[in-house]
Amino acid sequence: MVHCADEFVDEAPDFLGECPLFRENLERIVAETEPVRRVAEHWSAIEDRLTTIEEAARRVGARGGGVLIW
Q1: Do 53 and 19 form a contact (C-beta atoms < 8 A)?
Q2: Beta strands of the chain (E only): which ranges?
């Protein structure tokens, strides 16, 4: 879940800078997590969630907000 949180304003740019690390290691993440569907679907689901998180971080960052993910 992604929420705007003022106390994390300074961390949004750093977080966005770390997102490519997830993308670069997506194969390993998929391999080391318990899939509840086929590997390709698992990969796609993780990638879709990461995209959603990145888009939310960009939106709130542009407004001077921050992101809290739990």
Answers
A1: yes
A2: 2-4, 67-69
39: Cα separation from own chain's centroid: 19
**Torsion, Cα of 23, 28, 34, 35 (10° steps):** 60
**Dmax (CA) of the chain:** 39
| Contact between 38 and 31 (Cβ < 8 Å) | no
pLDDT tens-digit readout, 19-48:
899 889 998 988 888 877 888 898 999 999
Report yes or no: 65 and 12 within 8 Å, Cβ to Cβ: yes
Query: pTM, whole model, 2 decimals?
Result: 0.68
